[in-house]
Each structure stands twice: as structure tokens, then as C-alpha cells.
Amino acid sequence: MKIKKILLTGSSGKLGKAIANSGQFPPLLKPSRDMLDITNPKTIREYFSENDFDAVIHCAALARMKECQEDPEKAVQTNLIGTGNLVIEVLKKEKKLQEKIRFLHVSTDGVYPGIKGDYSENDAASPYNKYGWTKLGAECAVKLLSNYCIIRTAFFDPDNIRFNKSATDAFSSKVPINYLVEAIATILNHNFIGTINIGSERKSDYEIYKEFKLSLQPCRFKDVAEEAKIPLAKDSSMNSSIWKKIEKETK
């Protein structure tokens, strides 16, 4: 299936902007929130009736963990119900067009417990905070589609590392944003259906960020957690062997 036109949700967010500016995708529909608000089914229906596309990259979300923790209602409305609204309209459009729409959903490593690390796609999902639970609920809605890929990941912008300290004893598989954009472009045109981890090798957060911010200072996980005042993962690293195989095959 050759993708001709893509609907990109969340095009004003960090990842959405990176996708839109990458030049790695077919023509993109980039509706503003006024044009397509995933929390307002009417706007989705109207936009879908006026625009055709054969793929969706779903980046729209309430991604700030602290805000989700403090306002779970908003998090549910956006991440869980909003994704459900979008899925419903995609199902309707597929029925009308009599063809399947490729649907890529950007999820999070936060659906895993964040304790032992090296999580594979088959490990039990048990989020450690409210953001993770809403994203896990969104995944359930996406699985009602037939041509979908749920991407569990964590990314950062190497050019915009705002903090000055990072933990040497907290581990993850975070990837630079441009790497994730390239991975999404690859998965979009691949026949993979299901859930996939996209991440780097397990490293401490300090190691990951230090490469891009030489002035970064080391600290301990407990210091970061105390300052954040929300539940955080001690080890959210992922086993990305399925993705690595696809990446190798498509190079």
C-alpha cells in the first residue's frame, strides 16, 4: 500500500512539528485544533467529510505528566476519549471508502511499570502514573482498527535540554526526536501491525543527555523524583529488538 496523503494530529506539538518539517512524508494534512479537536467529535466528523487521506499519524495528546497527574479529567478527555473519538470516525471513514486506513499511534514507555526495565511488547502494562494510564486506555481504542501500529517510545530534543542535572541511577531508552521521526516514516510504509517499542539501548538518563549537553551535572533519582513531585520511572528501558530487525531490513 503506497501512502498518498496523511492526516497528522497534534501538528503544533514538538513531535508533530518535527514530522511536518522533516520532508520525509507524503503530503500532510495538518489541521489546527480549531479545525479538528479530538475532544469534539463534531469537528472530527466535519473534517473527515471534507478531506480524504489514507493514513493517520496520531500525535495529539496531553503529554505533560504533571498536568495529567493534577488534572486527570482533562487527561482522560484528551488522551483516552479523544483517541476513541478519532478511532470511531476512522472506522466510519473506512466503511464509507471500503478500504483500510493506516493508523500510527504514538504512545509511551510510560505504560510499563518503570521498575525493572528491558520491557518487551509482551510484558504486562501497568503504568506508574495517570498519564501512562490514559495512554494505555488510548491504545485499547486503537486496537479496534485493523491496520494500526502502536509505537511505545520516549524522545527528547537534543537542542533543547532545559534542565541542568540528570540522574545517573535512572535508566531509559529515550531517543532523539529526529531518530523517532525517521522511525515513524519507516513504520508508516511497513506492513507491521501491532505494538512496537522504539528506543535506544538502556542507558542512564545522565548518559543519554550528557552527549548533547556537556554542562549537564549528575544527580540521583531520588533528587529528581522529589523535585518533580509526581511518580517517575526508575528504569523504563525497553527491548526494541522487533524494531531493530525492521530498521535493519529497511536500510
Structure explained in plain terms:
The chain has helices at 14-22, 41-50, 65-70, 72-97, 130-142, 177-188, 205-210, 221-228, 241-250, and strands at residues 6-9, 28-29, 55-58, 102-106, 148-153, 155-156, 165-167, 171-172, 175-176, 194-198, 203-204, 217-219. It has 251 residues and is an alpha/beta fold. The chain has a single domain (6-250), classed as NAD(P)-binding Rossmann-like Domain (Rossmann fold, 3-Layer(aba) Sandwich). The strands form four sheets. The chain has a six-stranded parallel sheet, covered by helices on one side. A two-stranded parallel sheet has the order 6-9. It has a two-stranded parallel ribbon with strand order 7-12. Helix 5 (130-142) links the parallel strand 4 (102-106) and strand 5 (148-153). Helix 2 packs parallel to helix 4 (72-97) and helix 4 (72-97) runs parallel beside helix 5. The longest helix has 26 residues, at 72-97. The model has no long low-confidence stretch (mean pLDDT 97).
By secondary-structure content and strand pairing, the structural class works out as: alpha/beta
Q: How much is the radius of gyration in Å?
A: 18 Å
Instruction: Determine the number of helices (DSSP H or I, runs of at least 4 residues).
Output: 9
Can you tell me the CATH architecture?
A: 3-Layer(aba) Sandwich
| Average of per-residue pLDDT values | 97
- Count structural domains: 1
The third-level CATH topology is Rossmann fold
Question: Order of helices and strands, N to C?
Answer: EHEHEHHEHEEEEEHEEHEHH
| Number of DSSP-assigned strands | 12
Q: Strand percentage, roughly?
A: 15-25%
State the separation between the terminal residues, measured CA to CA: 19 Å
Portion of residues within helices? 25-40%
Largest sheet: 6 strands, parallel
Overall body shape:
globular
Strand order across the largest sheet:
2-1-3-4-5-10
Which stretches are low in confidence, meaning pLDDT under 50 for 5 or more residues running? none
**CATH H-level name... which superfamily?**
NAD(P)-binding Rossmann-like Domain
CATH C-level category: Alpha Beta
